[in-house]
Amino acid sequence: MSASNKIAIGRTRGLFTRTEALQQGFTDKQLQKGPFRRIFHGVYAHESVPVTHELRCLGAAMVLPSSAVITGRSAATLHGIELASTYDPVEVLAKNLKRAHGLRVWDTRRHHSEYLPWGGVQMATLVRTALDLLTKNPLQQGVACVDALLHSGMLSREALGRFMDGRHDDGIIRARRGFELLDGRAESLPESVLRVKFRLRGLHPVPQLEIPGEFGATLRGDLGFPDAKVIVEYEGRWHADPDQFRRDERRRRWLRSNGWLIIVVTAEDLATAPDHLVDTVVRAVRERGERDCSARELLSSGQF
User: Fold this and answer.
1) Rounded distance between C-alpha atoms, residue 45 and residue 55, angstroms
2) Residue-wise pLDDT tens for the chain (304 aa)?
3) For a surface tag, which of 47, 89, 121, 187 has the fewest beta carbons within 10 Å of its beta carbon?
4) Mapping DSSP to helix (H, G, I), strand (E, B) and coil, where does residue 171 land?
5) Coil, strand or helix: which one is 218?
6) How many other β-carbons are positioned within 10 Å of the β-carbon of residue 11?
């Protein structure tokens, strides 16, 4: 697609390039201090235009070569699975592209069947997006992102497995290891990260564990170890919803009164002391599991 056509697409969202502005008589000082904001390097919009990651992808598309492919968290967000925050770097596959602020670029081979036209450039299909998330991110983060794709129902584990079969891309060994750890039941990225951390320590938590509650109700725990009666829950979503906080507190009181140990994890715990957190959970699961096993042995022997 020609540069003029890409600019025309951007204009439909209120975007314009620095070059266009200078041609219209604006100065760089006016662009910096006037009623404008920079959306991407060399691309601007009026300050009244809401900034989203999608808009920033469109701004990047105005200055990227037409062969560039938006992928990773950016492509997932464009597909409707919001993995990228507004000002996260736009993730792109492109050849011989100079580094630029606001871009995360890889020069990686891709095939025509793996992308679709979007905004004057290309956008990776979901299955290609998943592969790039697994190959180009640390194991835990890559798995968590692809878990979110699976959870959306827009991608299946089987489809991704077929797509990865026989490939030799850079990072494919890490991607295959990540594929074995995938589970789309988690309802947030931190829950997936926690699950993978536990798996790597030899534990097998059940995401969204269902527990029979009082009056026939079914209670859920973010990550459950049913044999040890341990639940690990991520606290992040409480603060945005006071009603949810109160419901969770009632649920947790009932679970505790019925023998469950609940370990609540905060964003700070996960960011600053993940190893200590994992050690705490591993110890609790093993100690309670061993205690329960000993109790069953006593019962079966008739000594208790």
Assistant:
1) 10
2) 555 565 566 667 889 999 988 998 989 988 888 799 999 989 999 999 999 999 999 999 999 999 999 999 999 999 999 999 999 999 999 998 877 889 999 999 889 999 999 999 999 999 999 999 999 999 999 999 999 999 999 999 999 999 999 999 999 999 999 999 999 999 999 999 999 999 999 999 999 999 998 777 899 999 999 999 999 999 875 555 778 778 888 899 999 999 999 999 999 999 999 999 999 999 999 999 877 554 444 345 554 4
3) 47
4) coil
5) strand
6) 13
Torsional class of 109: left (φ above 0), alpha (ψ -120 to 50), beta (otherwise):
beta
CA distance 205 to 186: 11
Tell me which residue of 135, 149, 131, 227 sits closest to 186, measured CA to CA: 149
Cα–Cα distance measured from residue 62 to residue 118, given in angstroms and rounded to the nearest whole number? 11
What 3-state class would DSSP assign to 228?
Answer: coil
How far from 180 is each of 68, 148, 161, 176, 282, CA to CA, in Å?
30, 15, 10, 7, 21
Q: Residue with structure tokens 């564990």? A: 209
- Decide if 89 contacts 56 (C-beta within 8 A): no
β-strand partners of 105: 92
Q: How many CB atoms within 10 Å of residue 17?
A: 20
Domains of the chain, earliest start first: 3-180 (no CATH), 189-301 (3.40.960.10)
280: which residues sit within 8 A by CB, 6+ positions away?
263
Interatomic CA distance for residues 223 and 209, integer angstroms: 6
Do the beta carbons of residue 246 and residue 302 sit within 8 Å? no
Q: Give residue 125's Cα distance to chain centre.
A: 16
Q: Which residue intervals of the chain are DSSP H helices?
A: 3-11, 18-23, 28-33, 53-63, 72-78, 126-135, 139-152, 157-164, 172-180, 189-200, 242-257, 267-272, 274-301
Token readout for 11 is 């204009």
